[in-house]
Structure formats: C-alpha cells, structure tokens
Specification:
InterPro entries: Znf_DskA_TraR_CS. It comes from Litoribrevibacter albus. The chain is flat. It has a single domain, classed as DksA, coiled-coil domain (Four Helix Bundle (Hemerythrin (Met), subunit A)), CATH 1.20.120.910. The longest helix has 30 residues. It has 122 residues and is mainly alpha-helical. The chain is built from 4 helices and no strands. 68% of the residues lie in helices and 0% in strands.
Length: 122
C-alpha cells in the first residue's frame, strides 16, 4: 500500500467515524424526546424509539470495526489479507474499509458458512 493510499484510506475511515458519531448523537437526542406509552402493541412513538436505538447500536458496532481498521492500518499488514496475506484491492478497501480479508478468503468463508448451515454443524 502506498503512502497516498494509506492516507486516503485513513481519511475515509475517519470521515465515516465522524458521520456515525453525528448519527448517534442525533438519534440519542431524538430518542430522548420520546416518552414511552403503556400497552401493546407499540405506539408509533415507541416504534420510532426502537428504530433509533437500533441505529445507535449498529453505528456503535461499525465505529468499533472502523477503529480496529485504523489500528490495522498502522501495522505492516495494512492492505494485506488477515487470512492469507494476499494484497487487498484498494477499491475494495475504499468501499468497505472495515474489511481486512481478500475476495478469495471472503468467498471461502461464505462457502464454509453455507455448508455449515446446510449440515447444521457449529
């Protein structure tokens, strides 16, 4: 990975983290304005709160993954697959910066997962 690619990827990750943090803050503020109502089924306000909580949870998980990618980016393995060591296509890294595996290893994981699901193995 060249220095320019490294810097570009770092900037993309940092921008995504900033966006997700703003999204979390927005949803926290919005969720805080909703007062739960009693009874079942959920009222539209409670459904909205549930959606906002899920958005917050999903954004927090993505921030964790992106933070791990920033750490990985500072290692000798940056730009290389964690499984096999092959270079990861820069286009793939830019489109999914939390990804640290090459296409071949991702495909292999999908095949293994599909086989495990079919046989019911753990």
């Amino acid at each position: 990975m060249t220095t320019n690619e490294h810097n570009e990827l770092r900037e993309l990750i940092e921008l995504r983290i900033e966006f997700l943090q703003a999204l979390i803050n927005e949803n926290i503020q919005s969720a805080g304005q909703i007062q739960p109502e009693q009874g079942w089924p959920l009222s539209p306000k409670e459904e909205r709160q549930s959606v906002e909580e899920k958005v917050i949870e999903t954004a927090q998980l993505e921030i964790l993954e992106l933070t791990q990618s920033l750490v990985w980016l500072e290692t000798d393995q940056a730009g290389r697959c964690e499984q096999c060591g092959s270079p990861i296509d820069m286009y793939k890294l830019k489109s999914a910066p939390a990804n640290r595996c090459c296409e071949s290893c991702i495909e292999q994981k999908c095949i293994e997962l599909a086989c495990t699901e079919q046989t019911g193995e753990q």
